[in-house]
UniProtKB/TrEMBL annotation:
Record site feature (Increases basicity of active site His), residues: D139
Top-rank lineage group of the source organism: Bacteria
PglD N-terminal domain location: 3-82
Keyword ATP-binding applies: no
GO molecular function: acyltransferase activity
Taxonomic classification: Bacteria, Bacillati, Bacillota, Clostridia, Eubacteriales
Keywords of this entry: Acyltransferase, Transferase
Protein's name in the database: Sugar O-acyltransferase, sialic acid O-acetyltransferase NeuD family
Residues annotated as catalytic: H138
Length: 209
């Protein structure tokens, strides 16, 4: 059984810990050591049974360690994972027992799937994607480091670029293309392609001024 360290002790990291414990309850998988976070005081007012055991910036990778990503920001996810992997870190995927993933779907390393999330047939999900309690439709394509918040509908054949962030309750109609580094505000309905590097909000979603 490998030792597991959760990267990031904020709200998302503490949620990931809960899903890890659910996985361990169903089948003992990891020995959880705690969190690493550059803010050593982040848990001071929290009721966590696990502590921050060191900083990300100076963590030394040891044998038998693996890591679970507890960060939601796409840009920070990329920076932190690259830093740790350059030191030899291995990232586990944390897939809640209630998640439903089609046999023909593909996902990369460091994938985090929340309770009741789902991936449809022949969908592709890249590395370090965070899928809160949302669904990815058939034949969709999701780029590396993307975060899909709760109650989103990424419908069939949608393509999301790298480092995309979808706020909660976003809906994207089929066959649309969302460029790299796009931010889609909560509750937005995307009915057109979105060019890279912009923020869109509303129903229908429009570029923020």
């Amino acid at each position: 059984m490998k030792d597991l360290i959760i990267v990031g002790a904020g709200g998302h990291g503490r949620e990931v810990l809960e899903w890890v414990m659910d996985i361990n309850e169903e089948k003992p998988t990891w020995n959880v050591l705690g969190f690493i976070d550059d803010d050593l005081n982040k848990l001071d007012d929290k009721k966590s049974n696990y502590k921050i055991i060191g900083k990300i910036v100076d963590w030394t990778i040891e044998k038998n360690q693996c890591f679970a990503l507890g960060i939601a920001s796409p840009v920070i996810k990329e920076k932190v994972t690259q830093l740790l992997m350059d030191r030899g870190a291995e990232f586990a995927s944390v897939i809640h027992p209630t998640a439903r993933i089609a046999e023909s779907a593909t996902y990369g390393i460091g994938f985090v799937a929340y309770p009741n999330s789902g991936i449809g047939p022949d969908a592709y999900v890249g590395d370090f994607v965070t899928l809160l309690s949302s669904k990815i439709g058939h034949d969709a394509w999701v780029g590396d480091y993307t975060t899909i918040s709760s109650h989103c509908g990424v419908n069939g054949e949608v393509k999301l670029g790298k480092r995309v962030f979808l706020g909660s309750h976003v809906a994207i109609v089929p066959n649309k293309r969302i460029g790299d580094d796009v931010y889609v505000g909560l509750g937005s309905v995307v009915i057109n392609d979105v060019e890279k590097g912009v923020k869109v909000f509303g129903n229908p979603a429009r570029r923020a001024r």
